[in-house]
Design brief:
The complex is a heterotrimer. By secondary structure, chain A is mainly alpha-helical. In chain A, about 75% of the residues lie in helices and about 0% in strands. The chains are: A mainly alpha, B alpha/beta, C mainly alpha.
């Protein structure tokens, strides 16, 4: 019994939470506009959670600098595009380079100097927000840098296949169906490659995937198009899932998670692998920074506030540490979706912000305790 | 590994589970896409987006505004964003999703509401910018405010008048404490005061002994009282051991509180003139007992009445009352504005002014 | 060689000396004005108290308490509301202690018995506690006027009892870490958790002890801060946890536990305090202050690593 609890804990909790909010909001949360909102408002969590899941797969590793780093990226993006008038493509490349640099620095200190992750990223947490705010203040006296390139804004925010409110954007629906089909074809091909049959339970899974994409597609069609941040989310989640499963580096990364010592004895270069997890996390934070910058249309000193809390909550609630491999990514995404539903639900219910703080904290505690309770028996 | 062994025995269980999930999914979809309850078009909904519930000013004013709007028959939804811009953008989008017909927005930061404003424009919802001007977008329809620069000017003017700087027979020592460096308005408060006092600073009638004469040096992160106190204490200990400080211009009441606390702890000289803004309760009490000299009163009922009036006029198709269509350029267009006058409050007029406007009751000021 | 060994052993004092000289010169001696020296102590009282508690927690194995800043705000809010409604200062302080002990028990249980990561637990705790504190304050800043409270913890009434509380906190931490038997258990647990457990040390008890001690000290810090500023407002305590942690690490406490001394912590707190005050006197922009804090923290931790490596030849 406990085995199934462990396997499906995330899904069970997700259904429970969704049902509670559906009841509490009298199904208002299911309105197409609100379903779209879950993705629009929380795309940052989906992306960060994938990075954090990889990062936290090694014991005791964490990255609490992501929020401040997002603020820094926003500031640098503003400086590049608005002050230095660098074109969009070059700016994005520069920002990615910054992300890789921080990831390398943090990863190096953590992997090669054995400084615990939370201390190192604590330094980042303190330094990057200050840097970001200092930069913004340096170049603007209104507290934010405006004048971001239009092409950048179009690339990271707004909607693809925009349709007027009130009309039905068929393009969006077709787009979602096409994406779903691609994903399913890929899955079928890879199963065939492994030599297994397609079981009836897989057919059910495929049907569910199609239905989900139709639902989301219709929601997007009714609300003005597919949000660009949704596409980014899909790109990162799918690429990571595929990479973890199919490539040798990916598989090595998972060996680390199970047992660091054994992996090292087995010849895996654990230090380099840990470094890579931090580079990946940092890249996720960079992409998130671009999305936030585009959402705000400005560099702001308030960017990235509370991202650490939400991401860690998503990982905890998703039971990420319990699972391995591709499952990890799937659970992480479910966890992020859960936090998204909770955020939106509490917002729709008009719950006082301070109660939201309290509820989120308690949710994390319960999730992590439950997590540990399930884990304890597994290894004893 | 454990799974494989049990898999054969329990290969049915995953299928049952997946079917269950599929059923739940179908149920959700059905509810979602079917009967969307249509809104009654005769009921107008006003969406208010405020920065936070923790700041006394917003907690009080949004409630007053809601009550006045409800009196007029509107439905009102208020959202507080806990000083998190991501959250404010999401909340504005949710207000639009809840079919708000007009949005009253108090932005946490002027330029950063990007996507929310885009969505408001898409849905053709009028946006009234309250107290702080939303910039960097053309989706703002109107602006109601107390002139923030004017607040600083009033502070500077008060200092100039009280000390009679035009006929000064000696030089006065002055210090400044400004607000949060990331807050758009903080710059206006600071510059308003400095611009009035600049001629006297230049001519030497006013002297900043600590040399901290720019916004960045005087800023107080998050308008935090304790940080303001620490900075003031350091300045007093370093520069005012044998000299007196005559004026301390603090941009608002929370920072003024820090300054007066610092003076209480370690300063032995003659008490300076201290300015403030907002008429926060604890500071008004300080004005009454002499620990603070003045504050700037921005009677919220003036601003709220103007805003509610605007809402009425928008719905009835009448031309909207504004008294300034030239000054407020938000980076994209000039926003028609209604400006209310702030007034200063000091020991002589504070009880009268604050109680007659209903801002505080007599009991609260004891 | 002797000089190198001396430098390595006392690198903390040398750093303190260098920083002090730097700021003394940069501020043209203002650093040493009696008012500033007094402020150096007064403004950082909470750091000394919280760092003492944090030190014990970190010793047990790298456990932190990120929620202590929010807890200070909560305790201040509770005390402020109680005193507003007529309860006297001593009762208010008792309430603060009670809250501190309760928080300590919860943290201790979750981290010691359930073995949950301390970052996550205290991060969640921070969130919950801040929410409750803000609800209690309702956005208002309360003013503290109770005579007894201000005499015990404030400085404006002419009494200086507050110093005793600060001293008590530091001495208690010194006693626990240097002299008490439980201190040896704490060091053992932090140094090698597995070996400690097999030799019969009860991990749950030690961790609980550490967090309850932290809770009590947080209450004292809250009382001291409220006494000094005579107000409680939202936003109180925002940076306190980081300041305490920074003081511990700069002071040479090992990040994974088991190593470190209170003398280092005090010097670390002093160092951070001088840097903060120096920057403030110089009028340095507040944003750069945050950057410098982060950089100093990481450098301190790194140098601790390098210095402990120099003794042994490693790969």
């Amino acid at each position: 019994m406990k085995k199934y609890l462990r396997l499906y804990s995330t899904e069970i909790v997700f259904i429970l939470i969704s049902l509670s909010f559906i009841l509490l909001t009298s199904a208002e949360i299911l309105r197409p506009m609100n379903i779209t909102a879950i993705f629009l408002q929380n795309s940052y969590i989906f992306i960060l959670v994938v990075g954090m899941a990889i990062c936290m797969s090694v014991k005791d590793n964490i990255d609490i600098s992501i929020g401040s780093f997002v603020c820094f990226i926003c500031a640098m993006g503003g400086v590049f595009m608005s002050i230095m008038k660098i074109n969009t493509l070059l700016s994005i490349i520069l920002l990615l380079i910054l992300g890789i640099m921080w990831g390398c620095l943090a990863g190096y200190i953590i992997a090669y100097f054995n400084i615990p992750a939370w201390v190192t990223t604590l330094g980042g947490y303190l330094a990057f927000r200050g840097l970001g705010v200092a930069l913004i203040r340096q170049f603007s006296n209104t507290g934010s840098i405006v004048g971001i390139n239009d092409s950048f804004l179009k690339l990271f925010s707004g909607k693809i296949f925009p349709s007027k409110i009130g009309s039905f954007g068929y393009a969006s629906l077709i787009f979602c169906l096409v994406l779903a089909s691609l994903g399913i074809i890929y899955k079928i091909l890879s199963i065939r490659k492994e030599g297994s049959r397609i079981t009836s339970s897989m057919v059910i899974g495929i049907a569910a995937a199609y239905l989900l994409s139709i639902w989301i597609g219709i929601c997007f069609a009714l609300t003005g198009g597919v949000p660009v941040s949704f596409i980014w989310m899909l790109i990162i989640v799918c690429t990571t899932a595929v990479w973890i499963d199919k490539t040798s580096e990916g598989r090595r990364l998972l060996m680390l998670g199970a047992n660091l010592e054994n992996a090292r004895i087995a010849g895996v270069d654990t230090k380099r692998a840990v470094l890579m997890t931090y580079v990946f996390m940092s890249l996720c934070a960079t992409v998130t920074g671009c999305i936030v910058l585009a959402r705000f249309h400005a560099s702001s000193s308030y960017a990235g506030v509370n991202f650490e809390m939400d991401t860690i909550a998503a990982c905890a609630v998703g039971g990420v540490s319990l699972h391995g491999g591709k499952q990890k990514i799937f659970k992480a995404v479910l966890g992020a979706a859960m936090i998204g539903v909770i955020n939106l639900g509490l917002s729709l219910l008009g719950v006082d912000m301070n109660w939201q703080w309290i509820i989120k904290g308690i949710t994390i505690l319960i999730a992590v305790t439950f997590d540990r309770y399930l884990k304890k028996d597994r290894f004893e | 590994m454990i799974m494989n062994r049990c898999c054969k025995l329990n290969s049915i269980k995953p299928k049952i589970w997946k079917t269950f999930c599929l059923a739940v999914l179908i149920m959700f979809m059905f509810i979602s896409l079917s009967g969307c309850k249509t809104k009654d078009p005769s009921v107008k909904t006003i969406g208010i987006s405020a920065p936070s519930n923790d700041i006394q000013r917003w907690a009080v004013e949004t409630v007053l505004m809601r009550d006045k709007l409800r009196e007029k028959g509107y439905e009102v939804i208020i959202q507080y964003a806990s000083s998190d811009i991501s959250m404010q953008i999401s909340q504005i989008e949710n207000l639009i999703a809840k079919d708000a017909d007009v949005l009253i927005v108090i932005p946490i930061e002027s330029a950063s509401l990007g996507e929310a404003m885009d969505m408001a424009a898409e849905h053709e919802i009028p946006v009234i910018s309250y107290d702080m001007l939303i910039t960097n977008t053309d989706a703002v329809s109107y602006y109601t405010t107390f002139d923030n620069y004017r607040v600083g000017t009033i502070q500077g003017q008060y200092v100039k008048d009280k000390l009679d700087l035009d006929h000064a027979d000696r030089s006065y020592n002055i210090e400044f404490t400004a607000g949060d460096p990331g807050d758009n308005n903080a710059g206006f408060f600071y510059n308003g005061a400095v611009d009035v006092l600049k001629p006297y600073l230049d001519s030497g009638v006013l002297k900043i002994v600590s040399g901290q004469d720019s916004f960045g040096k005087c800023a107080t992160p998050s308008w935090n009282t304790e940080k303001a106190q620490q900075r003031a204490e350091n300045i007093l200990a370093s520069y005012y051991n044998d000299t007196a400080v005559d004026v301390w211009v603090a941009s608002n009441d929370t920072t003024a509180l820090g300054v007066s606390s610092a003076l209480a702890v370690s300063y032995k000289g003659s008490y300076p003139l201290i300015t403030g803004q907002d008429c926060t309760l604890i500071n008004v009490k300080n004005i009454l007992n002499g620990k603070q000299t003045m504050s700037v009163f921005k009677d919220p009922s003036l601003l709220i009445d103007a805003t509610v009036n605007m809402v009425d006029e928008i719905f009835s198709g009448k031309p909207v009352t504004v008294n300034d269509t030239k000054t407020y350029y938000n980076g994209v267009k000039i926003v028609p504005s209604y400006l209310c006058e702030p007034v200063y409050v000091d020991k002589d007029n504070c009880i009268e002014l604050l109680t007659s406007s209903g801002f505080y009751t007599i009991d609260q000021l004891q | 060689m002797r000089i190198r060994a001396f430098m390595k052993k006392n690198y903390l004092l040398i750093a303190l000396l260098l920083v002090t000289v730097f700021f003394a010169v940069a501020t043209k001696g203002k650093l040493f004005y009696s008012g500033n020296v007094k402020n150096l102590f007064l403004q950082n009282m909470y750091v000394y108290i919280l760092a003492s508690g944090m030190f014990i927690c970190i010793l047990t194995g790298g456990n932190t308490d990120l929620s202590c800043g929010s807890a200070v705000c909560l305790m201040g809010a509770v005390a402020g509301r109680l005193m507003e409604n007529g309860f006297n200062g001593v009762t208010a302080f008792m309430a603060m202690l009670l809250i501190g002990i309760m928080i300590g028990i919860i943290h201790g249980y979750l981290i010691g018995k359930m073995e949950l990561p301390s970052i996550i637990v205290t991060l969640a705790g921070m969130s919950i506690i801040r929410g409750i504190a803000n609800l209690l304050l309702g956005g208002y800043t309360l003013s503290i006027t109770d005579e007894v409270f201000l005499r015990l913890f404030g400085l404006s009434k002419g009494y200086y009892a507050v110093f005793l509380f600060v001293l008590f906190s530091i001495m208690a931490a010194v006693y626990i870490s240097e002299f008490a038997p439980v201190g040896k258990h704490i060091y053992a647990l932090g140094g090698n958790g597995e070996a400690a457990k097999t030799s019969g040390i009860n991990k749950t008890f030690i961790v609980m002890f550490a967090y309850i001690f932290m809770g009590i000290l947080t209450a004292i810090a809250a009382a001291v801060v409220c006494g000094r500023t005579e107000t409680v407002g939202p936003g109180l305590g925002e940076t306190y946890a980081m300041d305490a942690i920074a003081a511990c690490f700069i002071g040479g406490t090992s990040v994974s536990g088991g190593k470190g001394r209170m003398s280092g912590v005090i010097i670390g707190a002093l160092l951070m305090g001088i840097i903060n005050q120096g920057m403030s006197i110089l009028g340095l922009s507040v944003n750069w202050q945050g950057v410098i804090k982060g950089v100093v923290l990481v450098m301190a931790v790194l140098s601790g690593y390098f210095l402990s490596r120099k003794g042994r030849k490693q790969k």
